[in-house]
Design brief:
Elements: H1 4-101
């Protein structure tokens, strides 16, 4: 059994806790609403980020395709240049020789 003073003390403690909870209820409710708003905001931003990621992936694939095409064209140009260089060198030698003769 509880002593009378101990029982009264427990009642006062419970009353104090109850009053404290009543005081905190609006604060807790406000924080809960703020948390819910943040969750919604995060979900919206996550959705936007996922959409942007898809766009970036598509653009990356397109850019990689362009790089591949440019590399192919560069390869063709290098091959054409390699074929043309001997004639160019011969032309330079001929022009140089002709200038020496005058």
């Amino acid at each position: 059994t509880l002593k009378p003073s101990s029982a009264a003390s427990d009642v006062y403690k419970r009353q104090d806790i109850k009053e404290e909870l009543i005081k905190l209820a609006p604060i807790i409710e406000e924080k809960q609403k703020n948390t819910e708003k943040l969750v919604v905001e995060i979900e919206e931003k996550t959705k936007i980020a996922q959409e942007n990621e898809k766009i970036c992936q598509k653009e990356t694939q397109e850019a990689e395709q362009i790089v591949k095409e440019v590399d192919e064209i560069k390869g063709q140009c290098d091959a054409d240049l390699e074929k043309a260089m001997p004639a160019f060198r011969d032309c330079l030698l001929y022009t140089s020789d002709a200038a020496d003769d005058t």
